[in-house]
């Protein structure tokens, strides 16, 4: 029997075919042979263009997701009015897990129509994964306490928005409940999220009237004067950015009347001299001999503090105009007959704006 070995008859010059995923879509001839056709150039540019437009599309998709569902579902479960306080119970369904709401009385801002409000307390509890219940207790200026309240109840709560393609946004949820009725249940309130930013390096900063005290009140010629101490606090509850303040000038008003002011210190060349070296987020202002009228147990609602302060952050610094309006001060008398005034409720948030210079100080 003849035997023949099974030798490979493939020519030596033959190369095994490449896998399909590593084969080029088109091989462009060298320039020395001929110019590439428009179809060949389009095929070469297609992967780059496809990748670029894919990145843009993904970015737009994430942007649309970030901007969607910014309205929380908020209902007023009950609303009660007593001779001293107002209380509302709310149920909140957050729009997405990327939103976080901070239920802190010191960071909240509340108004009832045109009346000033002092927040006494805010408590919250988690009902389910998406639902949170919170109670708001506050004191408002004297006015209509009938069954129907004509003014709107506006609440601002500090919040954070976690974003996909950008850094987290600090802001606040704006809640508005209209035509409150005593004893009525489940009033649907409007809500929206607003970004808070002064400039790009600081996403959230709050200035609040931390404390107002009137330790010494004298009565001479039927005119009461007092020494006031007011504190401003810079806060960044979301970003935890380290801030520091110092006061340049400040004045204390009741209504539109200036009752005391602190002027800036200038050197011989008219330049600002900062005597307060402060690396803390609190700056204290002492007003001396301010004209003060207050009766034991009464609350005065129309005090206002206007200040120019220097702000220093981790990567920026500048000057701010700060206005703290509607500061409620409650006056009490101790056993010795001395009259004291203190801030009613929690901290009060103030309005602020960035200043270009100090020429108008």
TrEMBL record:
Domain of life: Eukaryota
Main location: membrane
Keywords in alphabetical order: Membrane, Transmembrane, Transmembrane helix
One biological process term in Gene Ontology: defense response to other organism
InterPro entries the record matches: NDR1-like
Compartment list: Membrane
Keyword Transmembrane helix attributed: yes
Transmembrane segments: 41-62
GO CC list: plasma membrane; plasmodesma
Protein name per UniProt: Uncharacterized protein
